[in-house]
Amino acid sequence: MKAVGLKKYGETDVLENLEVPKPPAPQGRDILIRVKASSVNPVDTKVRAGVYDDYPDYYDHVPLNTDKYQILGYDSSGIIEQVGSDLSRFKVGDEVYFLGSPFRQGSNADLVLADERGIALKPRSLSFEHAAGIPLTALTAWEALVERLKIKEGEQVAILIINGAGGVGSIASQICAQIFRLPVIITTASREETRKFTKEMGATHVIDHHQNIQQQIDGLQLNVPLKYAFITHTPVGEYVKICANVLAPFGKMCSIVQGEFDMYGTPSMAKSLTFVWELLSTKIRYGGNLEVHGEVLEKLAKLIDEGKIKSIVTKVFDFNCENLRKAHDMITKGQAIGKITLKMNS
Description:
Mean pLDDT: 96
Structural class: alpha/beta
CATH architecture of the largest domain: Alpha-Beta Complex
Number of strands: 15
CATH class of the largest domain: Alpha Beta
Radius of gyration: 20 Å
Distance between the termini: 12 Å
Helix content: 25-40%
CATH superfamily of the largest domain: Medium-chain alcohol dehydrogenases, catalytic domain
Number of helices: 11
Largest sheet: 7 strands, mixed
């Protein structure tokens, strides 16, 4: 089958057209999916560059070690071609959107094997290319907000989302607005187009991360406590210090990006603040309730079809090596708004 992948790590020019064997027939809970669209995420660019370090032993477990090539792409949409023997939820021909695994061959290819626990029927109201941009970002946001920060529906509190125009930040804003119904959702963005986009995604206030964040938040004169902070961009160390200053006592902050920081000498202990990490594939790597991924995607599909959650895809390219390199480059340079997906021509 045709794919775009790599045989070594480095700059975008390591991405190349490949002719590789078709995945084996699905076994157990695996499903073989004909890819119709594939999403591009920051994790793709880090893995490709050879600098992905969310797992200290990540590169010991990648397909490049065994297959001598690696195909990226960790959330996608497509049509089921074959199902494993232990499945009852799906059938051949179903249109689905799904989460992949960073430890398996990805979806920048004609066909991909995926675990049915991270799959759901595609929202009927979305095209394949718009559906492909949902799973990784939405599940990351969901785990961070629900499982790590433990936000409750209807809480009369505020949240600060760093990088509201990014993929995760834009879906997190919608979850906070439409599911949790938080009265105040503060996001950061600096350009006119990113400020407009994050407002459309549910932000009630937008502040400029290039300016003094604490002063801007103080100037909002909020009538509810700022209880939560969700860090989705670097520099983590700087944002952790800022969050320690602006969060209310007993507040919580969560980060999905790595960085070095020291809470010593900040108000973190005095305020009894909580800091937690969120990494979507922890359950895949170390074990966990993977069924929740499919359940959340089902819930989101319903909300999307009801018009309560919007697509966060702002760029769609035809799938080829040149365009995949372009998408990687845009993300690396911070030029992407929301999500970029690639539409298969087959």
